[in-house]
Amino acid sequence: MIKTQLQHLTIASTNQMLKKREISPTELISLFFKHIEKWEPHVKAWVTFQQETAMEQAKALEMKMKTIEELPPLFAIPYGAKDIIYTKGIRTEAGSNVLKGFVPETDATVVHRLQKADAVLLGKTTTTEFANWGGAPETRNPWNVNHTPGGSSSGSAAALAANMALMTLGTQTAGSLSRPAAYNGLTVLKATYGRISKAGVIPASWSLDHVGALTKTVEDAVHVYNVLSGPDPDDTATWTLPKQALKVQTNKDYTVGIVVDSYFQDADSEMAAAIENAVHLLQSLGIKTVPVRLPKSLEAGNAAHHIVMKCETASYHADQYAKDPSRFHAYLQQFIREGLQIKAIDYLKAQRIRSVFRQELCDVFKDVDLLVTPATPSPAPEGIKETGSPAYNLPFTNAGVPTLTLPVGFSKDKNLPLGMQLIAAPMQEQKLVDVGHLFQLESDWHKQSPELVNKVI
Question: Does the keyword Transferase apply (predicted)?
C-alpha cells in the first residue's frame, strides 16, 4: 500500500505514519532507494548515493524510536543535498572538473542541523557548474524529460518532483531555488538573506547566495525552515537575532500587491492566466489585493546584481583559474574573465545601488503585506542545455527579501507546471507561510505528481 502512495507522501504525513508505527525508518529509506533505482536512469538527478550509510542510520533511528516519546518533524525523513553543499566524507564536486574527487572533512551547517534533527541523507544532487549559469548537467524534468528542470539546483528539484526524496537542499543566487520549484510543481520558501547559514556551502556569490529547501507543501517548508534557520557563528552574515520559528496558520488579514510593472509583462498567456486565477482564489478567501509598481531602481539593481555576481565569482575562483582555465566550462571561463576585469570602484558602486534598490523595495511594503508575480515567464523550456530565465526571481534575491514559490497550474500542451511567486519584506516569512498555506488548503496543484516519461532525448 505504501509503495503505490509514495507520490502522496509529505514530510508531515510521513511523520504521522512513523509515529503510528505504520512504517519503520528502514522500510521508508529502503522504499525510496527502490524508487530511485527505477527512475534515476531517466531523470539523472543524482551524482552520489549513500545507501549503506543511510540504511545504517535508519536502523539506529529504529532503536532510538524505542527511547523517545515524541518524534521530531524531520525524524527519518529522506533528503538529498545539492552538490555544492559540504558533506563530511562524501564527494562534493560542484558539477566541475576543478573539484573532481574532492571530499570535505566537515559538514555544512545545514547538513549538521538536519543530522541533529535525525533526517537521513540519501545522496548528493546535480548542479550547474559551481551553481553558476552555464555548465548544465544532464538532469531531466520529470514532467517531461525533454525539458529542463531548471537550475542551478537542477537535481534537487528533479529528485523531489520524481518522488526520490521528501525534501532536497538547494541554493539561490538569482533564481536557482524558485525557478526549479516552479518548473517542477514544487514549493520553496527562500528565506531572508542571513536567516539560513551558508557555512560549508561553496559560494557562487557570497553577498547574494541563499540556502534553502525544496518541499512539496508549505507545511513541509515550515518544518524544514525551523530546523535550518538561526544564527551561526561560522557564518557572520547570519542574523544574530534569536531564532524565530514559523507556525502553520491561516491568517487572512493581509493585503497583497499585484505587481503590474512592464518588467513582468512578458509572461506567456498560460502563465498570466494561471496567476490571474490564483489571485482570484486569494480574493475569494478574503485577502485584499491592490495593484503595485516596483521601484524605478529595479533595472539598475538588476545590472548591479550582475556586476556583483561576476566579481565575487571571479574572486572565489581566481587562483584555480590562473592555474588552468581549461578545467572550467567555457561559460564559466568567460564569466570569471569578465569578473576579473571589473574595477573595485565599480563593484562598490554596484553594492551601493543594490542597497538603494533594497531600501526602495522595502518601502513598498509600507502599503502591502506581500507582493505577487509569476515565478517564471513560462513553463520549463524545451531542451536541457539551458536552464531557463531567472528574471522574475533575481530582483528579490538581489534585495535579500524572502519569497515563496507555489504551483498554480499546468500548461495545456505539455502538462508542464506553472508557478506563482509571493514576496515579503525582510524577516516576514510568517506572512508568506500564512497566505501560502491558506492557498494550498483550497487548491490541489501541489498534490499533483508527474507520470514519468521514458523517452529520452
Answer: yes
> Is residue 284 annotated as part of the catalytic site, yes or no?
no
Does residue 25 contact residue 59 with C-beta atoms inside 8 Å?
Answer: yes
Q: 84: closest CA among 124, 46, 44, 43?
A: 124
- Other CB atoms within a 10 A radius of the CB of residue 270 amount to 17
> Percent of the chain scored above 70 by pLDDT?
98
Residue 2 pLDDT: 52
Mean pLDDT across the chain, nearest whole number?
Answer: 96
The residue-averaged pLDDT of 269-282 equals 98
Catalytic residue selected from 96, 152, 153, 205: 152
Catalytic residue among 82, 190, 198, 310: 82
Q: Which residues pair with 291 in a beta bridge?
A: 258
Give the Cα separation of 102 and 98 in Å (integer). Answer: 9
Classify burial at 200, counting beta carbons within 10 Å of its beta carbon; exposed 0-12, middle 13-18, buried 19 or more.
Answer: buried
Given 96, 153, 154, 176, which residue is catalytic? 176
pLDDT given for residue 449 in this prediction: 92
- Write down the pTM of the prediction: 0.97
Q: Given CATH 3.90.1300.10, say whether it is the number of domain 3-261+276-293+365-447.
A: yes
**Is 176 one of the annotated active-site residues of the chain?**
yes
Cell of 371: 507582493
